[in-house]
């Protein structure tokens, strides 16, 4: 039986971005307070919706920080053989739920306001939105690299990206209101922001749920993987194959490999692990090599 390790690489990848997450948290929190305060003061739904998205930014980035720190601390505690890596996935799912709620509220409120749109001071909205846009650009740049490595960080990144687009929309709303006095610009932008974020939120929730349900990673054909291992010299059969994702960038596999009598089991094990690492990027694979009666008894399991 053997296994490979990739845990340290994932942990260090997340750890590298703690400072950037903290900086993004501070920037978005400051402008969240500004946008919400001015949004309610001016009755601007566009500012309120953008500020509400910033609330989810702050919560999302905060959850991302907590998840990374919790996973780092739990790695070496007895009984937590996989640490708390799933905390990152739970944080990403929580972010998606928050975004669904905010987007739904904004769309509902905007539709209600179409009947009697309130007067909104265009210049104030324009100036506040400009500040929010700058804050989102800073946070976007801070989180961009980490979003490629971690689903948790990607959740925070997507929230900032959605809010960046929302800030552009609020700028347009303020400009149109200032130049033309069109009261419908504000609720129209509110609806647009809500509709923009929904499909991206669904994609994030779907990826999170795939991991939590321990589905095979996207892009990994389990049947093809099984056939590849079975095609190795000396392998008679492969069964009880499981492939799942522990957290972003950490794919895990286990399988029972029945070998022909008299073959070098260590060499076959090494070849199978090398195959999984090189062709499927699965560096943590637990493979049980079986011969004779052990292989037959294992196949009789019903679950």
From TrEMBL:
Localization, UniProt: Membrane
InterPro entries referenced in this protein's UniProt entry, alphabetically: Cation_efflux, Cation_efflux_CTD, Cation_efflux_CTD_sf, Cation_efflux_TM, Cation_efflux_TMD_sf, CDF/SLC30A
Alphabetical keyword list: Ion transport, Membrane, Transmembrane, Transmembrane helix, Transport
Membrane-topology annotation of the record: Multi-pass membrane protein
Signal peptide range in chain numbering: none
Domain Cation efflux protein transmembrane, first and last residues per copy: 22-212
Major localisation: membrane
Transmembrane segments: 21-48, 54-71, 83-108, 120-143, 155-182, 188-205
Domain Cation efflux protein cytoplasmic: 217-290
Family per record: Belongs to the cation diffusion facilitator (CDF) transporter (TC 2.A.4) family. SLC30A subfamily.
Name by which UniProt lists this protein: Cation transporter
Organism: Actinophytocola gossypii
């Amino acid at each position: 039986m053997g296994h490979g390790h990739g845990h340290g690489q994932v942990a260090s990848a997340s750890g590298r971005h703690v400072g950037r997450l903290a900086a993004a948290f501070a920037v978005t929190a400051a402008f969240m307070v500004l946008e919400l305060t001015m949004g309610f003061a001016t009755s601007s739904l566009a500012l309120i919706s953008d500020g509400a998205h910033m609330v989810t930014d702050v919560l999302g980035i905060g959850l991302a920080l907590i998840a990374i720190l919790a996973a780092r601390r739990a790695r070496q505690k007895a009984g937590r053989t996989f640490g708390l890596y799933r905390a990152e996935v739970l944080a990403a799912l929580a972010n998606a739920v928050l975004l669904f709620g905010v987007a739904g509220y904004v769309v509902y409120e905007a539709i209600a306001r179409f009947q009697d749109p309130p007067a909104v001071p265009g210049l104030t909205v324009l100036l506040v939105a400009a500040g929010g846009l700058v804050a989102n650009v800073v946070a976007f740049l801070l989180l961009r690299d980490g979003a490629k490595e971690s689903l948790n960080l990607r959740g925070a990144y997507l929230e900032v990206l959605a809010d960046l687009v929302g800030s552009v929309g609020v700028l347009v709303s303020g400009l149109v209101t200032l130049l033309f006095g069109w009261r419908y610009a504000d609720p129209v932008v509110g609806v647009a922001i809500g509709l923009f974020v929904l499909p991206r939120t669904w994609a994030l929730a779907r990826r999170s749920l795939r991991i939590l349900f321990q589905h095979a990673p996207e892009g990994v054909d389990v049947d093809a993987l099984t056939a590849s291992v079975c095609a190795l010299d000396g392998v008679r059969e492969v069964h009880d194959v499981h492939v799942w994702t522990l957290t972003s960038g950490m794919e895990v596999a286990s399988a029972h490999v029945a070998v022909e009598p008299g073959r070098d089991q260590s060499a076959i094990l090494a070849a199978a692990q090398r195959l999984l690492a090189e062709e499927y990027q699965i560096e943590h694979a637990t493979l049980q090599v079986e011969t004779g009666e052990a292989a037959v008894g294992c196949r009789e399991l019903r679950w």
